[in-house]
Structures are given as structure tokens and as C-alpha cells.
Design brief:
InterPro entries: Endo/exonu/phosph_ase_sf (IPR036691). By secondary structure, the protein is an alpha/beta fold. It contains three helices and eight strands, in the order E-H-E-H-E-E-E-E-E-H-E. It has a single domain, classed as Endonuclease/exonuclease/phosphatase (Deoxyribonuclease I, Chain A, 4-Layer Sandwich). 28% of the residues lie in helices and 35% in strands. The strands form two sheets. The chain has a four-stranded mixed sheet, with no helix packed on it. Strand 7, helix 3 and strand 8 form a beta-alpha-beta unit.
Length: 137
């Protein structure tokens, strides 16, 4: 079974956060981690991800202190990103060891009602065929 963690970190810059992150990963042993609202971009984000211990990553850049979605994963899963917006990352995931497949969406919804309503329209358009597993977080 794939173990995934979704965490609204509200800022990933501090050394305390990185220490807590590493401890959480050590204790929980997740296959996939999604961090939203990291509030950092560029080289600082690259450095964090490189030090995270995860072999693969996909990143939607933060916009100042808003948004931002980072998805990190291990070789125990294969994640193919299918669709992206500032509010979500949607992908096809394969549990390599068990050969189980499912769709997974990591959502960071806007507080603005009109922006958020477009998110729901986008998610409805992505809904997989009936009988296909879809994990939303």
C-alpha cells in the first residue's frame, strides 16, 4: 500500500521545519509527500528538495506567500503528472511493488471564492471513469 502524507506547512524556510520534516519522514516512512504553501521558490526550494531524501519531485511555484505545491516521491511509486494548476497537481500513480494503479490529486484551494469555484470545475473535468480509484488530498 502506498503511504502518502499531505501537509500544509505554512512556510518551509526555517531549519526547525526541515528538522521536523526529516523526523516525520523517518518515523512515517511515506512513499509520497505533498507540501503546500511552502512560501519559498527557486534555489532555496531546490536545496530543500535535494536534501529531502526523496528521489523524485514536482513543484508548482509559490506566488509570494501564497500557493505553492511540492510533491516528492520515492522509487516505490511511479507518478506521472497529468494536469496542473496553481491549485492542484493531478497524476497517475503506480504502486510499483503491488502493481496497483490510481489517480491522485494534491489540492491547495484558494481562499478566494471565485478562484476556488474554478478549481471545482477543473476537478470535475478530470474525474476518472467510474471504478477507477481517485485519491484527493
Amino acid at each position: 500500500m502506498v503511504k502518502a502524507i499531505f501537509w500544509n506547512v505554512q512556510g518551509a524556510l526555517g531549519s526547525d521545519f526541515f528538522r521536523y520534516f526529516k523526523l516525520m519522514v523517518q518515523v512515517q516512512k511515506p512513499d509520497i509527500v505533498a507540501l503546500v504553501e511552502p512560501r519559498i521558490n527557486g534555489r532555496k526550494a531546490d536545496n530543500f528538495i535535494r536534501r529531502s531524501g526523496f528521489e523524485f519531485s514536482y513543484r508548482v511555484e509559490a506566488n509570494g506567500f501564497s500557493y505553492g505545491i511540492w510533491v516528492l516521491w520515492r522509487p516505490s511509486v511511479r507518478l506521472d503528472v497529468v494536469a496542473v494548476s496553481s491549485q492542484f497537481v493531478y497524476g497517475w500513480c503506480v504502486d510499483v511493488g503491488r502493481r496497483k494503479t490510481f489517480f491522485i490529486t494534491f489540492v491547495y484551494a484558494s481562499l478566494n471564492r471565485s478562484v476556488r469555484s474554478t478549481l471545482w470545475d477543473q476537478l470535475r473535468a478530470l474525474e476518472p471513469v467510474q471504478g477507477t480509484t481517485w485519491v484527493l488530498g
